[in-house]
Specification:
By secondary structure, the chain is an alpha+beta fold. It folds into 2 domains: 211 residues, Defensin A-like (2-Layer Sandwich); 122 residues, Serine Threonine Protein Phosphatase 5, Tetratricopeptide repeat (Alpha Horseshoe), CATH 1.25.40. Helices cover 39% and strands 11% of the residues. The protein is built from 13 helices and 10 strands. The strands form 3 sheets. The chain has a 5-stranded antiparallel β-sheet, covered by helices on one side. Strand 5 and strand 6 form a beta hairpin. The longest helix is centred in the C-terminal third of the chain and has 18 residues.
Length: 346
């Protein structure tokens, strides 16, 4: 099966966020004709949204009644795949993409009784959803389950060939519920919360990063002896040898480091924002490599490092993901910065 970019305005063939294209077929004839969206559950999984939100959105946009019958998603009338795909683009722009960085790794969060927000896991920005759309009221009545103790969905987490995710899918099934009927209050409960069987779809990476996200809000006291680094000459020499791999010519890490150095040629204050730096990391597909932290340790800071660490704490924490290897890589980059590039300042 081929996949398309979630944001179809982005024509980059290496765009990491993918989804399957809408597949539909027409059933019945005359006044009873219906369009079945055969892979709506897979599309919803890639977008980190309950299928009920998508089918309800189609109903509003196409002016047609919608139904969910035994895991089959139906729209009254004849609608081809191109029409449904164009309508899905509207859903993605309004209810999936971050309003700041246009990244699809977002969650819908209900604040208070009737305020919906998009929480972006990429840039950290929180943006408001458009309350004028009819789907807004439906989501308020049927909010998604975003509890930290439960695995949640993220763009491309369960799409073959998709990119890395921050969490995984929590979707479920509803039986014979008419989306436009009086049973809509059960839609989110049956269609989202009862996804125990879908836990098997969680991949190891999603589980690891989901645990990291759950721990970000906790304040952890780290003892000095737990942060100890072997500073013997042998250990420093060994780490220096490991860092030699960073000097390989014409690789992605050279390109990334040279880009940062070029942008901050006159001052570290001229560095790109953390959002721009993260986008560049995604473009180069080096977010899962410890060497990325080595590069950042060498180029993000200068003599004013004490005051420069905190503004970049969010970016560094996201990349490290509580992984010891990534932490050591950052320390190695800092060690190289102090020992080789700024020896007179130490």
């Amino acid at each position: 099966m081929s996949f398309i970019n979630i944001c179809r305005d982005n024509t980059d063939p290496f765009y990491r966020y993918k989804m399957p294209p809408i597949q539909s077929k027409t059933e019945g004839r005359g006044n009873g004709i219906k369009t079945a969206i055969v892979n709506l559950a897979e599309v919803a999984r890639a977008l980190n949204r309950p299928p009920s939100y998508l089918i309800k959105f189609f109903g509003y946009e196409l002016g047609a009644q919608t139904q969910i019958q035994n895991d089959r998603y139906l729209v009254n009338g004849a609608h081809d795949s191109n029409e449904l795909q164009d309508s899905l683009d509207g859903f993605i722009n309004k209810f999936v993409l971050c309003g700041s960085c246009k990244n699809p790794e977002t969650e819908i969060v209900l604040k208070g009784k009737d305020s919906l927000e998009r929480d972006c896991k990429a840039c950290g920005k929180i943006t408001l959803l458009d309350p004028k759309h009819k789907l807004y009221s439906f989501i308020v009545k049927n909010p998604p389950d975003n509890k930290k103790g439960k695995k949640s969905a993220t763009a491309t987490a369960n799409v073959v060939g998709g990119g890395k995710s921050i969490s995984d899918i929590a979707s479920g099934h509803s039986n014979n519920n008419n989306v436009d009927g009086n049973d809509s209050s059960n839609l989110a409960g049956n269609g989202v919360a009862d996804g125990a069987g879908d836990d098997e779809d969680d991949d190891l990476l999603a589980k690891k990063i989901n645990a990291e996200v759950a721990q970000l809000g906790d304040v952890v006291e780290v003892k000095d002896d737990e942060w100890a680094v072997d500073m013997s000459q042998e250990a420093i020499a060994a780490r220096a040898r490991e860092l030699e791999g960073l000097t390989l010519q014409n690789n992605k890490f050279d390109e990334f480091g040279e880009w940062l150095l070029k942008e901050s040629k006159d001052s570290k204050d001229d560095l790109p924002s953390d959002v721009e730096i993260y986008k560049r990391i995604v473009e180069l597909d080096i977010g899962d490599s410890p060497e990325t932290l080595q590069v950042l340790g060498q180029v993000l800071f200068d003599e004013d490092i004490i005051n420069q660490i905190e503004p970049h704490a969010g970016l560094l924490a996201k990349l490290i993901n509580n992984d010891d290897e990534f932490e050591k890589s950052l320390l190695g980059g800092l060690e190289r910065f102090f020992g080789l590039e700024k020896p007179k300042k130490c």
